[in-house]
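User: Hello! I'm new to structural biology and keep hearing that structure can be predicted from sequence alone. Could you demonstrate with Galactonate dehydratase? Please show me the input and the output so I can see what each looks like.

Assistant: Of course. The first part below is the input, the amino acid sequence of Galactonate dehydratase. The second part is the output, the predicted structure written as tokens.
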Amino acid sequence: MKIEKIETFLVPPRWLFCRVETSDGVVGWGEPVVEGRAEVVRAAIDVLAEYLIGQDPLQIERHWQVLTKGGFYRGGPVLSSAVAGLDHALWDIAGKVYGAPVAALLGGRVRDRVRVYAWVGGDEPSSIGDAVAEQVAAGMTAVKMNASGQIQTSPSVAEVNDIVTRLAAAREVLGDSRDVAIDLHGRVGVAGARRILHAVEGLQPMFVEEPVLPEQMAHLSSVVETSTIPVALGERLYHRAEFMAPLNAGVAVVQPDVSHAGGISELRRIAVLADAHGAMLAPHCPLGPISLAASLQVSFATPNFLIQEQSRGIHYNVSSDLTSYVVDPAPFTWVNGHAEWNPLPGLGITVDEAAVRAADKIGHSWRNPVWTHEDGSFAEW
Ligand SMILES: [Mg+2]
């Protein structure tokens, strides 16, 4: 069996899918995308396809080595995301050939269901209480929200108080038996992050995400040590080596994205590395159905798993949602806030190829907003 054809599809709301076809007619799907840079990843796939065409799709790790290292220059979001999508597709093919879910090929599932959380609020969170109540009514046991909208690098008292007020509103609805996490999105500086962690400590969020930007990792330990709140990060890290510094700084939760950090192969390795540091895996996944299906395979097979992100109803999904491109939405139907075990082979989903091909004709040019502070200078989004 040989890889014969590799295609990419730019589909709304902001995704890129890839389809890998073999000489035996087995097809694997992947989701290689950097949000806002999908066209660039598409070009990277075209270059990597030059190597993959004609290869045996079942030698996944061998190809992973060549795809990540064979071009001499390595790493970064674009290349690592392109490799990730191809890696999903090769695992999907392997599962279909061997007649097993990818989780089974990773050693088998270690749990019967995977806890997922829902997003509440958008980039400018408001009326959090109602949004949380809606998720509780839907059976969710955990939610995540942005801590703030646009915020000063050194936040004002009012800005810090707003974060506390919104988190308190969520906690009031959730009670003590459900969880809420907040995402700082690297929007404030290191000192600002320490102040915010202090201010929200009594509300006991499940974790605080991205308190500092990846380039400020050297100062992460001061943030970790400032409170008892678990610190989480990793959506902008792309390789296991990049997780060494935050794990040594004491992060409690790592959040690699299966569409950015080298795919199923590398997510699995990052999880193992985290386990050796006593940290847990909470895969980042605000993306589409193939990405989530790939992520769930790792979550089912990972002992030190905490919770899975998913994008059903997320604020980015305006024109299409998680179920728009799959034949059967059952794998993304949450039961009491959990994804149920899915015994289907490969990634466990059937992509609606006709819908994908039609959507690609429309395409998209999604870009994240570019924010500015009141004085006109650049603000982190
Ligand atoms: Mg985040």
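User: So the tokens describe the shape?

Assistant: Right, they're a compact way of writing down the 3D structure. Reading them back into a model, for example: The pocket of magnesium ion is lined by residues 183, 185, 209-210, 235 (CB under 6 Å).
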